[in-house]
Amino acid sequence: MTSSPHYDALVVGARCAGSAAAIALARAGRRVLLVDRTAFPSDTLSTHVNFPSAVAEIDKLGALERVMACDPPKATHGMVQADGVRCLERFASVDGIDYGICVPRPHFDDALVRTAIDAGAELRERTSCERLVWAGGRVTGAVLRGPDGEEYAVSCSLLVGADGRRSSVARMVGSERPYRGSDNNRACAFFYMDDPQVGTVWRERLIQLRQGATHALIFPCPDDRVLCLFMGPREDIPAWRKDPMGMWERMLEENPAVRERLGGATNFTKLRSTAENPAFFRRSSGPGWCLAGDAGHFKDPIIGQGMRDAMRFGRLWGEAAAPVLDDPAALDAALRAVEERRDRECMATYHWGNRESRIFDVSPLHREVLAAWDGADPPRLLHMFDRIQSPHRVLNPLVGARFATRAMLRRGADRRAILREAVEELRIDAGIWREELFPRFRSTRQSRSERTDWQWPPRRPARAAGAAPAVAPAAVAVDPLDIGESVPAGAERVAA
Ligand SMILES: Cc1cc2nc3c(=O)[nH]c(=O)nc-3n(C[C@H](O)[C@H](O)[C@H](O)COP(=O)(O)OP(=O)(O)OC[C@H]3O[C@@H](n4cnc5c(N)ncnc54)[C@H](O)[C@@H]3O)c2cc1C
């Protein structure tokens, strides 16, 4: 085994979290090695919507111009519609950015990686982290395997594991088992297609259409394409995989708003899907190491916040570590402080994701909230997506009680059902408020938004007899666990 010179930081995984950490460290003049087992541009399982607060993070990394080079539509509005009741709001400005985007990952991640290289990081593609090197209880390096299969050791002052939710760095530092989590219930099934609404206001809207148990989320993409994601019961996934276009027709039938937006769409990609979205927190820092992005914390994709947080805390870890890399005690304290900050900033959003991932039908309470907030200025719902205000503050118990009362006073209302729902929401809120008022670092105490049957490793949903995988195995290398691994860019674009 050969060895190579010392790096200030070795970053494993080069997408949102890894590139962000590398950019911050390299900008501070540190010597950074960024490795990924894939080669860019490369795809990964994600619906990649970025609300303005995420776009602002891209800007802070200095990658916005590159990301925008593919000319994505700028979404100035967000909309949630349930059972025909609509709430359309304009995004507020976050650090000067008032639009969202949905840029496919091959282009997006490549833009981040190129920005890291420009900042001075050294990139090694098709290179995986195989083992860690320890000395005196600290991580002091790693054994890497390069494209030719040769293994070599690299020494470093800091190792950043930014290698996604099935992080092998997490396993190697003994942090693989999350200390808390929730095995959420909604699955994801999505296609890209040609947008039948090119040239209309729909291209400026990120929308969520709720009807029955399944939510449809629709995000305009570059090149007149659009992404349509269905998040419904995970039990539907075998049917999606067996007959994607049959399920598409069923969705158009069941949800007239989807038909209005996307009816007549053509040129579909193959379906991409996952039934596994367990949300979790792992211990994310220790002597000489940290876990950035999904490696340390994952929340339900239904709220589209993962990329933003991966970039934000990747950058913050890099910025905090850069000045103290030569002082192990100060470095460990700085890493831990960022972990605490991440938990503080992400906890309420994590609970919101768990809450949204419950399977429920649209209720009178939902309709009441959406109708009242339609056109709100400043926006209410979009403040949650933009992290301007936490969900439990926007829809706080007082506001909730007002809407519940209003809903109960409507003629023909099922008052008992509304009261039951309001009480359950209040109980969830109580847990979130308690955590916010009395925070406990790495608390293992379960809260009511979390599913009590949580287990690790997550349960695998059974595949229905005869159900075929959604994506042709010959065309696309799909992770057997279906939780988002690299696929070659453009590998799955096919005509319907
Ligand atoms: C179905 C789905 C939909 C989603 N939709 C959205 C959305 O719309 N908006 C949003 O903001 N978030 C979304 N997310 C979440 C978002 O995709 C993630 O939060 C984000 O990709 C995390 O970035 P990351 O850099 O932490 O990890 P990843 O993007 O997972 O990148 C990890 C990288 O590490 C590399 N790697 C792994 N192991 C090794 C190793 N041993 N050696 C070297 N390299 C390694 C991998 O090749 C990969 O490139 C979604 C997630 C899912 C599953």
TrEMBL record:
GO MF assignments: FAD binding
Q: Where would I find the FAD-binding domain in this sequence?
A: 7-330
**PANTHER family attached to this UniProt entry:** CONDITIONED MEDIUM FACTOR RECEPTOR 1, GERANYLGERANYL DIPHOSPHATE REDUCTASE
**What is the species of this protein?**
Paraconexibacter algicola
- For region Disordered, the annotated ranges are 448-469
Name-wise, this protein is NAD(P)/FAD-dependent oxidoreductase
Family annotation (InterPro entries): FAD-bd, FAD/NAD-bd_sf, Geranylgeranyl_reductase
SUPFAM superfamilies xrefs: FAD/NAD(P)-binding domain
Task: State a single Pfam family of this protein.
Answer: FAD_binding_3
